[in-house]
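Hi P.,

Sorry for the delay on this. The queue was packed all week, but I finally got your sequence through. Input first:
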Amino acid sequence: MTDFRDRDDQDGSGIPRRTAARTAKLASLPLGIAGRAVGGWGRRLTGQSAEEVNATLSAKAAEQLFEVLGSLKGGAMKFGQALSVFEAAVPDEMAAPYRDALTRLQAAAPPMSSKQTHRVLAEQLGRSWRDRFRDFDDEPTASASIGQVHRAVWHDGREVAVKVQYPGADEALRSDLRQLQRFSRLFQALVPGTDVKPLLAELAARMDEELDYRGEAENQRAFARAFEGDTHVRIPRVVASAPKALVTEWMNGTPLAKIIAGGDKSTRDSVGALLAEFHYASPAKAGLLHSDPHPGNFLLLDDGRLGVIDFGAVARLPHGIPRHLGEMTRLALDGRSTELMDLLRAAGFVRPDSDLQAEDVLAYLAPFTEPLATERFHFTRKWMQRQAMRVGDSRGQDFRVGRSLNLPPEYLMIHRVTAGSTGILCQLDAEIPARAIVERWQPGFADCAI
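Then the structure:
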């Protein structure tokens, strides 16, 4: 008799659910990379150059990263998607394979079976769920970390997107994030320019709210109300929701990943400006910040607006972006080190017992304000790589200053989302009027001018 107990329990969903199986796949990442490093050392002894060997190792590591994180979905894929926006910080000589692998994580994952999809919809929308649709396409149009999306026609004739959560997503998400935290140092080395530990901690903290699509529906309704009639942004309306199924209006548009790969300069600049405007305007208009910035969540619509999807992760900012951030940004831009240091201490960014010097802190922060020093700024991968190398060089002064500064918990999400949005701007190679956007929407920035 065949024993099925050791098989991956997928139930036709495409998401391995047994903790042991998922752990083994995640553990294969550091083991595989270590094995290839030993093999690379051997190839150097046989005459291959270090550059050739390193390029081969990078390509194989990237392919393995995509294969493991993408096939597991759950927390593994969500982590990969979060990492993908930081590929612009990876040095050019090793970036190409990671760029391709991490970008594919934004939209790819094996789908679950039609039978399993129907079962979830029956559980969530009722046994007569088909009566609510004129048409339903069993082939998913997109697969993501904890669910997949189907195109359909609602009973009133509206085109809709139907998001269906994978069975076992909750178990997989929790298991993955526990395992990924064990390997945080490895991922830190694979993708320079990111702070992996806090990213994983944040994904774990907001896990429960992302698993309940009713919360996502409420977030999306709030964004849709705030941007109703907006000439720059469109948020699709929610049509129906349940804990593991979400129906929203369908949007036709060009994915940002396609624009990043081959859009012309005018389109890339336009999309970059729309993205920056959405990022800074949302807290002021909706009291919320869209907190999952990767290209898979944005579309350029046919009417020139930015279409935004996926509201499972948001930061609640009922009073908008804190005024202190605008004041600090302006003080750093103007080189006012003493006032900047006083404000940083008052807001909890510098511990009372710290011996940091005001000029050193200014030297660390000022380069981040470069996009606001001119009327238009060109966001490039090289600019982001310089910032990542500057703050990541353990031998440099900026590294020591950065490690000595404190980031209060209430600013952590804002900081990560801003960094992620900046990463997309650099992927777009966009030149935008960043200063005018910040002056309009960031409290404290214009008021703190000399």
